[in-house]
Each structure stands twice: as C-alpha cells, then as structure tokens.
Amino acid sequence: MDRELLEQTLTELGQPSYRAKQVWEHACAGASSYEEMSSLPKGLRSELSERVPFSTLSLEQQLEARDGTVKALFRTHDGHPVESVLMRYRDGRRSVCISTQSGCPLQCAFCASGQMGFKRNLTAWEIFDQALYFRQVEQVNHGALMGMGEPLMNLTAVLTAVRALPDLGIGHRHTSVSTAGWVPGIDKLAVEGLPVRLALSLHAPDDELRRTLMPVTARFPIAEVIAACERFYALRRRKVLVEYLMLAGVNDRPEQARALVRLLDPGRFKLNLIPYNETGAFRGSSRAVIYSFRQALAKAGLEATVRLARGREIDAACGQLAGTVGAASRT
Ligand code: SAH
After folding, report:
1. Cα angle vertex 186, ends 246, 116, to 5°?
2. 97, 110, 111, 203: residue to mutate for ligand 1 pocket, most atoms within 8 A of CB
3. pTM recorded for the entire structure
4. Interval 129-136 mean pLDDT
5. What pLDDT, in 10s, does the model give residues 222-263?
6. Full set of structural domains in the chain with CATH
7. pLDDT above 50: residue 308
8. How far apart are alpha carbons 168 and 196 in whole angstroms?
9. CA pair distance 43, 56, nearest whole angstrom
10. Is the pLDDT of residue 102 over 50?
C-alpha cells in the first residue's frame, strides 16, 4: 500500500488527520481489504478501494514447499516480476526474503536473478508490500533484503521500506540488508543509524577469482569492500555477516579458507557458508567439503555457520529467484 498516496487521497477526501494512521494500522495488522476495516465509514471504504490499490503488487502465483517455505511471484503495475519468500522455522521465526529490484544489474555468474536481466528499481511500497502480503498469511518477525536485486543500488526506497517494517512486526534488529559489495551504499547505510544487520556476499577471497564470479569486483575490489564493512562496524557496532557460497573446485580449497581467515577479523565479521543451489553453471561443494572447509576456518579462529537451504524444490532458495512462472517442478 502506497502510504503517500493513501495520505494524499484521504486529505483530498477531507478526512480527519487520524484516518491515514488508522487505515495503515489495519493493513499492518493483516487486513486483506478495505472492506474488512469495519471501523471506517462504508463510503470511505469503497472510495479507497477505487483510488488507492490495497497492494502495489498483484499476486501471480504462490507455491509452498514441503518444509513450509512459501514463494510468491508478483507483478508490478507495469508488468515486471517480483519474487518473495516466506521461511518458517520450528522456533517460531518467520522470515521474509524481500526483493528490492525486478531482476538485477550485477550479473553474478551463479545467480538466476542476474540472468533475467535488470528491469527496474522497486519503489519503497513495492518493497514493503511483499512483507505486507505475507503478514496477511501470518505474523512475521524477520526480514532479509536478500531477494532479487542489489538493495544498496536502490537505497532511498529500501530505507523508506525498512523504516516502515516495524509497523508490521519486523524490527530493525531483525532486518538484514545484503549487498554484493556496493561500497557507496555501505557507507550511506552506516550513517543512517538504523540498527539493521549488514550482510556481504563475498564468495571469493581474492579479486581475481571474485571478478569471474561477481563482475562488480572490477568496480569495487575486495579490500575496498572490506574496509567499508569495517567502517560500518565502527559506526554501528554490529558484526557484518559474510555470505560465502560453496562452489565445488572453485572457492572451496583449504588455501582459500586460509585466505578468508587473513581477510576477516572475527571481532567484526561472522561467516555463513552457503550450500549452492544449482542454477546451471556450477556444482555445489559436497557436504564433506563444506564441513572440512569450516573446520579449517575454525582451527584458525574464524567460526562459520552453514546455511540451511529452504524451499529448493519450488525454486525459492537463494539465487533461484528468476521471475518465472511454473519453474517449480524442476527437480
Ligand atoms: N545483491 C545482494 C542481494 C541478493 S542476495 C547480494 O548480492 O547480497 C542473495 C544471496 O543469495 C546472496 O548471498 C547471493 O550470493 C546468494 N546466492 C545467489 N545465487 C545463489 C545460489 N545459486 N545458491 C545459493 N545462494 C545463492
């Protein structure tokens, strides 16, 4: 729901100033239409239905995996695909993975979102409405701006959306913003003062390899990205989560573990090893290799966790968001 359009419309309709807040609170509490908002005058409900779309996105398809993960495919009003994922954990955590762009300009070699090309930045309310949609399904409490797109290349809209997320139950401490290493965005995010977590998709310990996986490295080499993350830590005092995809024979050798140890100060970084969800070009490291890589890191004093893959059979897992309908049955 476009909050600015809502406020403007209510003003035009001569409504009292508390109305916008009232409607917004209903929406953030999980209402799925204006009709349900019984504390609003009936005439106003139908006026709003006509003038302020309840969501800026229309749902095209929804899929649910056996582990409870739900993937939603939306379209923007101008027809671009947007995908979002709800992950359900046994401890009650309900985490929404949110897209910030339709497609992605960064073209990482291992990721399906880059392969579909870049359509456009999403607006703040298109970002927010993905979480609002899942709030209609159930209570949500964690948010990850880790879907399609590079959040720090669309920072103004991302910040507006992030600032509104607590209204529907996702506090800043439970919000992560993931970047491929867009240095100016890291610095801007740091000075905003929000206690969100920064996540960095690193995936390689040296520039030469990283350039082949993530072309953005040519613009921002690893040393600059790590320095920006250290500035973020200095200002925010929150460890940066480094994401490291495990690609067989590419970045999973013991000497690469040692290079990571030299790069990442355990006082400022946490490391998360990510089993690769195959999208074509690479093979994922075996479980055994992932665990011995982790062991090598631990021996040198760098603790790492291994990410649990969710929703793989519905192409809802990391790197599988490609805006395609019906790709779900690929096994
Ligand atoms: N552009 C931002 C946000 C998108 S992130 C970023 O790069 O961080 C999505 C996360 O999924 C990143 O850590 C990305 O590296 C990871 N990812 C991409 N493709 C993947 C795949 N096929 N399997 C597992 N993780 C993948």
Report:
1. 55
2. 111
3. 0.94
4. 98
5. 999 999 999 999 999 999 999 999 999 999 999 999 999 999
6. 1-54 (1.10.150.530), 65-314 (3.20.20.70)
7. yes
8. 16
9. 22
10. yes
